[in-house]
Amino acid sequence: GAVVSQHPSRVICKSGTSVKIECRSLDFQATTMFWYRQFPKQSLMLMATSNEGSKATYEQGVEKDKFLINHASLTLSTLTVTSAHPEDSSFYICSSPVSRAVANYGYTFGSGTRLTVV
Amino acid sequence: KQEVTQIPAALSVPEGENLVLNCSFTDSAIYNLQWFRQDPGKGLTSLLLIQSSQREQTSGRLNASLDKSSGRSTLYIAASQPGDSATYLCAVRRDRDDKIIFGKGTRLHILP
Asked: CB B32 to CB A104 under 8 A?
């Protein structure tokens, strides 16, 4: 249980275009979704936290106008990289903490999206 | 501010050896700690989850321990195999807001 489906797994886009990444919870309600970015050989870095029905909270240094996050329902959160540039090329992963009511669960991760901007 | 440190950053050992990966965290106010495996270009695979009230968890050849008061966790891998080669990440879930803080990982290479 507690599966997050992330799409697409890989995307190549031209510089200046926008790319949308979706994370969908399949069998639970994801009230919170964390979005991470990982550059090669680096750790996962938290970009922003989204809560269903409210504005996302961005970490320091992350441009909220460039990385648009929408969490309009309890099962879907999206990250849109707007006007992408080569330096945005990275591995993006979403994660949702599974309810504390289920003591043995931690958090579940999407399978990641490798974005390459050319 | 919670910081998670993993030592060593990289490790190469011959097949069959037992090994220990270390993780330390600066703030003991954690809800749980989780060890993940990440293969190159892939997502995360959860290995073991330890709740803050627990001392250790075991799964097959893997054993993870947690000493919350000293801010340390270890991942013990017994009888290592080439298929164990991957990056191993330690992550703590903060008690107050559920945010997950990752270490930078240990890149493990098991030599056949």
From this structure: no
